Every structure is written in structure tokens, then in C-alpha cells.
Amino acid sequence: MKIAIIDYQMGNMFSVANACKFVGLAPVLTWDKDIILEADGVILPGVGAYAKAMEQLDKLDLIETITKVITEQKKPFLGICLGMQLLFSHSEEFVNTSGLDIIKGTVTKFRAQENAVPMRIPQIGWNTIKKRKESPVLSGIDNDNFMYFVHSFYCTPDEKDVILTTTSYGDTTFCSAIESDNLIATQFHPEKSSEKGILFYRNWAKLVKKKG
To answer: Which one, out of 45, 61, 134, 200, has a CA that is 20 to 30 A from the CA of 52?
Structure first.
């Protein structure tokens, strides 16, 4: 199954591609709209600044393409880290920046609060996830399994039924993964999350093959 990994020069795409290969998928790094629209599944990775990422997607004329893949073609779509945040309505990073607005909600910065649980910003390292609903993509992954995070901002969806997992950091419990129809997105990096992360990719690969 061909997987289009959207290359907008803002992500750790090679580790994502390697994880896809490991579970039997055929990834291609691309910003070509036709290849993205013809793929069996699509991944939007990302690290870095929100506003710059949206600028890059706009420059490459990919905003409409991503929206079409998710809302019209309804192909399996996976957003990772910044790629998850970009799916939301807007972010408060530096300036209030509009996102893809596919998932209604906001992207907010962690705030270290006085007299609260100590926390370093960004969160870098292993943290646990808690399931808020069952999903095939979490098959074999349990509550309190560890995943790898690198982020200063977190997503808050308006509709709570899209929340797939939550994670607590400091005194903040945030949405660490979402699922809505064909769309799945994670704040954690499954490709950096050892055996459970690879299992996540393997489960997603099964969803792609089932859809195909």
C-alpha cells in the first residue's frame, strides 16, 4: 500500500518513512498533489513552528489537497506531533495563527504555574497515555504505556468525543491523540516510541489495507 508522507520541509520524515517500511507499507516523501491524492494513505508529520508550517503548506498549495483527502476522499490519514496541531482551528504560538480547521479547537502552550507541579517546557521524553475510547489503532496498547513526546504546545478539541488518549504533564492533562472517522493524529511520536510505537504503526497499516 502506497503511503504519501507530506514533505513540506518541516518534519522528521525519514524516521516516519522507516517505520512505515518496517510494517510493510510503501512510503513516498512528496509534496506532489497528484501523488498525495492517489495514495492509499497519507501522513502529515511535523516539528517546528506552527505559523511557518502553515506558510509552507500554503506555499506548496497543499491546504486544499489535505482537506480533500480527509473530508472528501476519506482516506486513512495520520497526523504526528505538529502534524496533529495543524489539523486544529488555530494556535496561539507567537501570534494567533489559523490552522487547517479540520478539527475544531485550539493549540495552547504549556504554562508553568506557581505552586503547581514542576514542569519543564518543552516536554521532552517518555510519558504515559490513557485511553479515552477503544480503537483498532490502539490494539495491544494499554493504559499507562509509554510514548515519546517533544512539544511545548498541546491541542484542545471542542468536541471531546474525538479524544482518543490523554496524557498528564505537570498539572495539565491534555489530549495526546485524536480519532475522527478516517483521521487519526498523535501528539507523541510513535516512530520514536519503541515497540508500542511500532505496534501503533502496524495497527494503522492494517486500517490502510482494510480501507484499500
So the answer is: 200
Task: Please give the Cα distance from 111 to 172 (Å, whole number).
Answer: 9
Provide the 10 A C-beta neighbour count for residue 51: 16
Residue ranges in the chain assigned as alpha helix (H): 13-22, 33-38, 50-59, 63-68, 82-85, 194-211
Query: Cis omega (within 30 of 0) on the bond before 27?
Result: no
Determine whether 155 is an active site residue.
no
- Per the annotation, the verdict on 175 as an active-site residue is no
Q: Quick one: angle between helices 194-211 and 13-22, nearest 10?
A: 70
Which among 20, 93, 175, 189 is annotated as catalytic? 189
Question: Residue 162 corresponds to which cell in the numbers above?
Answer: 474525538
Cell of 17: 518513512
Our answer to whether residue 189 is catalytic in this structure is yes
Task: Report whether 83 contacts 62 (CB < 8 A).
Answer: no
pLDDT digits (tens, 9 = 90+) for 156-190: 999 999 999 999 998 899 999 999 999 999 999 99
- Note whether 204 and 78 are within 8 A (CB): yes
Instruction: Please identify which of the residues 20, 81, 155, 175 carries the catalytic annotation.
Output: 81
